[in-house]
């Protein structure tokens, strides 16, 4: 993927980001438009378009993304009061950047899971 992908460019150091944790295979950095007091994006360094592609293509790497998210949640002091971890996926999921990323949100009560009840 590389130069066409915003998050691949962050991994490559071509676009700055506020990195809070890095492992051999994952990167966690603060969202540029935070929706909560803590809003961190956790990505695999390798390009996968979305969480389904990642989980089906490399389940171990998907687990490493979760482990990094949990470590950041601990570092940010979120384990006691809780947090939300979510992967927007595709059109209905509202995904805008097609390099898989987990949103780690916390630091305040986050309200209902969805703004509207769609059931
Ligand atoms: P999504 O709608 O799930 O694809 O979320 C994309 C997220 O990426 C949004 O929350 C944006 O605020 C965030 N974002 C876009 N550009 C950057 C950037 N350069 N650095 C950090 N976060 C970004
Ligand atoms: Zn990418």
Explain the layout of strands and helices.
Blueprint lengths: L5 H6 L7 E4 L3 E5 L7 E7 L6 H7 L1 H17 L7 E4 L3 H4 L8 E5 L13
Antiparallel strand pairs: 1-2, 2-3, 3-5, 4-5
Helix pairs in contact: 2-3
Bound molecules: adenosine monophosphate (AMP) and zinc ion.
Protein name: Histidine triad nucleotide-binding protein
Organism: Micromonospora vulcania
Pfam families: HIT
Short description:
With 119 residues, this protein is of the alpha+beta class. Helix content is 29%, strand content 21%.
Features of this protein?
single chain; alpha+beta; five-stranded antiparallel beta sheet; 4 helices; globular; binds adenosine monophosphate; binds zinc ion; Histidine triad nucleotide-binding protein
Q: Structural class, from helix and strand content?
A: alpha+beta
Instruction: Report the sheet-strand fraction.
Output: 15-25%
Largest β-sheet summary: 5 strands, antiparallel
Overall mean pLDDT score?
A: 97
Low-confidence stretches: none
Rg calculated over all Cα atoms: 14 Å
In percent, how helical is the residue content?
25-40%
- The oligomeric state is single chain
Which small-molecule species are bound to the chains here? adenosine monophosphate, zinc ion
Task: Count the DSSP helices.
Answer: 4
The ordered string of helix (H) and strand (E) elements is HEEEHHEHE
InterPro entries: Histidine_triad_HIT (IPR001310), HIT-like (IPR011146), HIT-like_sf (IPR036265)
Domain HIT: 6-115
Pfam families: HIT
Motif (Histidine triad motif): 99-103
């Amino acid at each position: 993927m590389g130069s066409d992908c915003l998050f691949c460019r962050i991994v490559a150091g071509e676009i700055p980001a506020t990195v809070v944790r890095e492992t051999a295979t994952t990167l966690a950095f603060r969202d540029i438009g935070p929706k909560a007091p803590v809003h961190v994006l956790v990505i695999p360094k390798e390009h996968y378009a979305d969480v389904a592609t990642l989980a089906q293509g490399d389940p171990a790497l998907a687990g490493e993304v979760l482990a990094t998210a949990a470590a950041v949640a601990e570092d940010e002091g979120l384990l006691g009061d809780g947090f939300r971890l979510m992967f927007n996926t595709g059109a209905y999921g509202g995904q805008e950047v097609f390099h898989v990323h987990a949103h780690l949100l916390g630091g305040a009560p986050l309200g209902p899971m969805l703004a509207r009840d769609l059931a």
